[in-house]
């Protein structure tokens, strides 16, 4: 689904943040990406949905080499990838339901209100449909961000430190939703530095753990 072969990336010429990355996200699998702060986890996720392009190497998304794709071609690929951003990126003047529906609006699709109610009910936010984002708690904002990420029924869901500002109970509540998505056949990749969270999820679902260390990607040991 998403494959990298010897991919390197740096924000400045002559300085590589990621080097020699080889990655294959398997369909229907749950993946974790871990590593210290500043190691390049967010950068790797941005490569996965072609928000960034590699300096060297090959990046393939759904069988298409993204280097050389037109802007429209990349936009079409991105519709198949749902992203939960670390900072949620809501429009604070729009109600929660309208924020969640934005991917539909941008792609010119009609919002099915019954489906919207079901989606907000799934993330336990039906009662907040008309609320503005600033009124939500941290956990509610992250669940709303997850609803927005999956409204186009993507094949892959990427989540960038989705529990970074949540307590343990709220973190596990969000992870349960991601586990549910994975059990429907979605490929999930979660970037996190929380090893206890990874272990808790691995007790419930088979998950592959990848670690960035020194700019390279490694498969974590059995202890994770």
TrEMBL record:
Record key words, sorted: ATP-binding, Nucleotide-binding
Transport recorded as keyword: no
UniProt-listed SMART domains: AAA
MF terms in GO: ATP binding; ATP hydrolysis activity; transmembrane transporter activity
Transmembrane segments: none
Domain ABC transporter residue range list: 2-224
PROSITE patterns, A to Z: ABC_TRANSPORTER_1 (PS00211), ABC_TRANSPORTER_2 (PS50893)
SUPFAM superfamilies: P-loop containing nucleoside triphosphate hydrolases (SSF52540)
Protein name, UniProt field: ATP-binding cassette domain-containing protein
Provenance organism: Paracoccus alkanivorans
């Amino acid at each position: 689904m998403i494959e990298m072969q010897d991919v390197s990336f740096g924000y400045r010429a002559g300085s590589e943040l990621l080097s020699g990355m080889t990655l294959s996200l398997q369909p229907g699998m749950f993946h974790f990406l871990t590593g210290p702060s500043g190691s390049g986890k967010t950068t790797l996720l941005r490569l996965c949905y072609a928000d960034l392009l590699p300096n060297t190497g090959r990046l393939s998304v759904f069988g298409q080499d993204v280097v050389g794709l037109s802007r429209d071609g990349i936009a079409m690929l991105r519709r198949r990838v749902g992203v939960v951003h670390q900072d949620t990126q809501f429009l604070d003047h729009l109600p929660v339901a309208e924020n969640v529906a934005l991917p539909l609006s941008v792609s010119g699709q009609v919002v099915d209100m019954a489906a919207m109610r079901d989606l907000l009910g799934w993330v336990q936010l039906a009662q907040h449909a008309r609320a503005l984002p600033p009124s939500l708690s941290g956990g509610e904002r992250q669940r709303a961000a997850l609803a927005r990420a999956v409204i186009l029924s993507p094949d892959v869901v990427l989540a960038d430190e989705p529990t970074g500002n949540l307590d343990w109970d709220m973190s596990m509540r969000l992870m349960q939703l991601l586990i549910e998505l994975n059990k429907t056949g979605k490929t999930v990749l979660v970037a996190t530095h929380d090893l206890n969270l990874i272990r808790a999820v691995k007790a419930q679902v088979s998950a592959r753990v990848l670690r960035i260390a020194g700019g390279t990607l490694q498969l974590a040991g059995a202890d994770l």
